[in-house]
UniProtKB/TrEMBL annotation:
InterPro entries: Beta-barrel_TonB, Plug_dom, TonB-dep_rcpt-like. Residues 48-149 form the TonB-dependent receptor plug domain. Residues 1-25 form the signal peptide. Its main location: membrane. It comes from Duganella violaceipulchra. Residues 179-589 form the TonB-dependent receptor-like beta-barrel domain. Keywords: Cell outer membrane, Ion transport, Membrane, Receptor, Signal, TonB box, Transmembrane, Transmembrane beta strand, Transport. The lineage of its organism: Bacteria, Pseudomonadati, Pseudomonadota, Betaproteobacteria, Burkholderiales. This is TonB-dependent receptor. It comes from the Bacteria.
Length: 616
């Protein structure tokens, strides 16, 4: 099938400019990428389409949340029902939130009832850098890695003690502050440490607009606080033990009609892990990790006890990963055991817990200018056994130019809601399945670079709300494996350094379609992109961003259209000296009203300023 997508003049000009004049330089946090193969790999050997958002970029972005930061990346769209504290959906290459996997320091996070991560509860202040790998990775990570994997890395200690502190203030009485301390001791038995804490509070704005059934003109604010830590001890050469900790709490108001009651939700994310890395033999490195993630949510919709609901989910995982060096190649053997538990006050689950046992193997090789990887995995749970695999190949025409091709299968496990929620779930529901093929081209000469990837991801057995319910006749509908979808598109990125000026651009031309109805998938545009330019002169760095999106549809029938939009943002960072710096960010300078979800408000013109202190 040939991808046919029309686009407005602005986006067409952007694509032509990228092809003719400058190319894309993916931001990197170092010389290696972890997520693409589950172990550190030189960027020159990575076949998967991927990007990294560095610590410096996060610090200079002035972004109010991780969702705001992700929205500026290629291949990613968002939908949100209000401000930074409200529910958000992150689409990767057209795939829904529950079709994408989110990791924090290698630990899977997300709700077992919805299947998606609670993006609003993830603290941006605790993050060191982010890796995004596009395309299916179920053969490495198991269920839900259909559209891609986003891995968040918290701050890690190294070198001399370093301390940072930040305080900022902005529109809507938004206050933010965070502190961090990190470092490592020397000697044979060295200890590394990194601890951070942050708090953000805002009066917010009304999360709904007139026309929404729950509209209330009052402000809907949020309060988010977090703490994180990493500690490790070097026992001997090649042997290390450590622990990872993250805790975040979010209180968020939302609208529920004209009632004077303070309707609100509370979310808590807890992530903890202990691990042991051991160089058992010169060619054999072992990683054993035990982790536990809690995703708790409460909702207060009224003054009565019956208006209170609580759903807590917990995932406990044991992982044993073995990387064996075979000459220049790496063979990886993996065992995973994951247990999910759900506790709720609203209804009784027939099966409040389930376990998944997994075995996987992968092989990564390089022969001259040829790159190769292959992986297979088998996951077994109460929904049955699922086998996934992938093959990837890359060829370096020159040191700067590389072509890649890959094919991979994936699946999404039914959530607890889709299996057991009263009058909605069906225990007989099967996993969704995906088959993805893609080709890519990368060029990187230092100051100039280009990245372009074409993908075609066919999904079957999609779980959708079918009305009336085919097995019970309920008019309210139920979750049922009925639909097919095709996620097809071309994603491109480009950048060019011209002296003190850096230019960058991204564009996504896609066709995320429900093949059963021949309609576009909800809240996804056929085209979206970004234009960015920044200028550096001594202590000053200033930039401008343009966010562009085509129209989307609010409903599956494609009858409720959400218009396209373009937003202009400005930002600047100034370093007074080695230790002190300030940043200013002005988002949506045109004060444009736009829609990410029908009759839900989005931020208008917002100004934020902050000052940072840090020493090493």
């Amino acid at each position: 099938m040939i991808l046919r997508i029309s686009c407005p003049a602005a986006l067409t000009s952007l694509a032509l400019a990228m092809a003719a004049s400058y190319a894309h330089a993916e931001p990197t946090a170092g010389t290696v990428l972890v997520t693409a193969t589950r172990s550190p790999q030189a960027l020159a050997d990575v076949i998967s389409d991927s990007i990294t958002i560095s610590a410096e970029q996060i610090a200079e972005s002035g972004a109010g949340s991780i969702v705001d930061l992700l929205q500026r990346q290629r291949g990613i769209e968002i939908a949100r029902t209000g401000g930074s504290g409200t529910n958000a959906t992150v689409f990767i290459r057209g795939a829904n939130s529950n079709q994408n996997l989110v990791l924090v320091d290698g630990v899977r996070i997300g709700s077992s009832t919805t299947g998606a991560a609670n993006w609003s509860a993830i603290p941006l202040t605790a993050i060191d850098h982010i890796e995004i790998v596009y395309g299916p990775l179920s053969s490495l990570y198991g269920a839900d890695a259909i559209g891609g994997v986003i891995q968040i890395f918290t701050k890690k200690g190294k070198g001399a003690p370093a301390f940072t502190a930040f305080a900022g203030y902005g529109t809507d009485n938004t206050r933010e502050g965070d502190v961090s301390l990190s470092g490592a001791t020397g000697g044979e038995h060295s200890i590394s440490y990194a601890i951070s804490a942050g708090k953000e509070k805002s009066d917010g704005f009304s999360s709904t607009r007139p026309g929404n059934f729950s509209y209330n003109a009052d402000k809907d604010g949020y309060d988010r606080e977090n703490a994180a830590g990493q500690f490790s001890l070097r026992l001997a050469e090649g042997h290390e033990i450590g622990t990872l900790l993250l805790r975040s709490k979010l209180k968020s108001q939302y609208d529920s009609g004209s009632s004077s009651y303070d309707t609100r939700s509370a979310a808590k994310l807890e992530n903890a892990a202990i691990y042991s890395k051991n160089q058992i033999l010169p060619i054999w490195q072992s990683l054993v990790q035990y982790s536990q993630t809690k995703d708790d949510g409460a909702n207060y919709s009224g003054p009565l006890a019956s208006n209170y609901s609580q759903i807590n989910t917990k995932q406990t995982t044991f992982t044993w990963q073995n990387d064996v060096q075979i000459g220049a190649d790496v063979l990886q053997l993996l065992y995973d055991h994951r247990k999910e538990e759900v506790v709720t006050n609203g209804f009784k689950l027939d099966k409040p817990q389930r376990t998944t046992n997994s075995l996987a193997a992968s092989y990564n090789a390089r022969r001259g200018d040829n790159l190769f990887n292959a992986s297979v995995r088998r996951d077994k749970s109460l929904y049955g056994s699922k086998n996934t695999g992938s093959l990837g190949y890359g060829y370096n025409f020159t040191q700067a130019l590389r072509a890649t091709a890959s094919y991979g299968t994936s699946f999404r496990a039914p959530t607890y809601n889709e299996l057991y929620y009263p009058s909605y779930g069906n225990p007989a529901n099967k996993p969704e399945l995906g088959k993805n093929a893609e080709i890519g081209l990368r060029y990187d000469s230092g100051a100039t670079a280009l990245n372009a990837s074409y993908y075609r991801n066919r999904l079957t057995d999609l779980l959708v709300n079918t009305t009336p319910c085919p097995f019970s006749g309920a008019k309210s509908g139920c979750a049922y494996n009925v639909n097919h979808a095709l996620l097809e598109g071309l994603t491109m990125g480009a950048s060019q350094q011209l002296g003190r000026v850096n230019l960058a651009a991204t564009i996504d031309l896609q066709d995320p379609k429900d093949e059963t109805s021949n309609k576009r998938l909800q809240r996804r545009a056929k085209k979206h992109g970004n234009l960015m330019a920044d200028y550096s002169a001594g202590a000053l760095k200033a930039g401008v961003e343009l966010e562009l999106s085509g129209d989307r549809y609010e409903d599956a029938a494609n009858s409720n259209r959400l218009g396209g939009y373009g937003l202009v943002n400005l930002y600047a960072t100034y370093h007074f000296n080695r230790d002190w710096s300030a940043l200013v960010r002005w988002n949506n300078i045109g004060d444009k009203q736009y829609d990410l979800a029908r009759n839900y408000a989005t931020p208008m013109s917002k100004l934020f300023a902050g000052i940072r202190y840090g020493y090493k």
